[in-house]
Amino acid sequence: xxxxxxxxxxxxxxxxxxxxxxxxxxxxxxxxxxxxxxxxxxxxxxxxxxxxxxxxxxxxxxxxxxxxxxxxxxxxxxxxxxxxxxxxxxxxxxxxxxxxxxxxxxxxxxxxxxxxxxxxxxxxxxxxxxxxxxxxxxxxxxxxxxxxxxxxxxxxxxxxxxxxxxxxxxxxxxxxxxxxxxxxxxxxxxxxxxxxxxxxxxxxxxxxxxxxxxxxxxxxxxxxxxxxxxxxxxxxxxxxxxxxxxxxxxxxxxxxxxxxxxxxxxxxxxxxxxxxxxxxxxxxxxxxxxxxxxxxxxxxxxxxxxxxxxxxxxxxxxxxxxxxxxxxxxxxxxxxxxxxxxxxxxxxxxxxxxxxxxxxxxxxxxxxxxxxxxxxxxxxxxxxxxxxxxxxxxxxxxxxxxxxxxxxxxxxxxxxxxxxxxxxxxxxxxxxxxxxx
Length: 437
Prior knowledge:
The structure is a single chain. By secondary structure, the protein is of the alpha+beta class. It has 3 domains: 6-158, Orthogonal Bundle (Triger factor/SurA peptide-binding fold); 180-287 and 410-436, Roll (Chitinase A, domain 3), CATH 3.10.50; 290-394, Chitinase A, domain 3 (Roll), CATH 3.10.50.40. The chain has 14 helices and 11 strands. Strands 4-3-6-5 form a 4-stranded antiparallel β-sheet. A 4-stranded antiparallel β-sheet has the order 8-7-10-9. Helix 2 crosses helix 3, helix 7 packs across helix 14 (396-427) and helix 8 runs antiparallel to helix 9 (221-228). The chain is globular.
């Protein structure tokens, strides 16, 4: 059965590659052992062998599958390093009480199924008919969602964009988003540890040059990404999607201007390591000036060591019942909301598309004026949302400022996240035991 829309998954775009990479359901193993200690957790030989088998299957399915691979030991260490980084991120998420409960996970899986014109039971059956483990898929989706929320909380929410930055952006004619070329890019990242020695940097640059040469020799980008890249989406082909030039880091923007579709950049050096870009396609930008705005208010309950996800959801469910039975939403927002908007009875004012996190916006867009949502989970906690009214507005100037702010944020975000991941990994206690076996 052909699943035709899996690459549209909003939590990471990894699913097509994941399905392609799955071998038949794993056979039981007789002996297990520890290949790495990560803070207070471990990675076992069985876990490593399973992940290694997936990646080898993906490499076999990629183009130019006859191209030589690095020695097994080298590739295995690369896979283990990625697993360690993912484990460090999941531990950081657990420490800050970021979780994806089963109802939220099921809604994400239902969206995937709907994109393939299936309901969830039919989607599960289709996966299992192909010899794959649906439970393994569920957990991989959960992991991607957790890391997305971790990024929103620890990185994106802390990036500041000043009015001066917006003014300077708009004053630069070359950054006019209405006239910007958009680029569809794929990316390989070779991370450099903080304080790396000149010898280590030289080795990492040589590794990046080898990867680039393989691309120039015709190797499939997703294959090279799988083998070499330290990026979080390395196993999904390294795609960055469509980005306007102004939304790219300056280093990337300068590199892609001279590329034609299909061409590969030189190796680029940043504070985080070494980068290779491939231009997949480019197009002229399409600027919208008329948008639908929503005026909404909400009650936010944040989770912590004392208030669990279930506690927050139950608390909001009780508040919703009181509102439906006649209690004023604004009065309850003043008393119970953990958001700064509590002083304004939860009123968030007029919201433009893209101004709130996806979970909030999706729930808000599904409401009619006056309607109140069920409890909604986001990276910031649990929300009860009420739509007050909607309008369509020509907001050319406002839109320019909003787009400029978003472009600056996106430009900062990728570098900030890569840097945060590197620092988080460097602070972790990691003990390799692979070589001992």
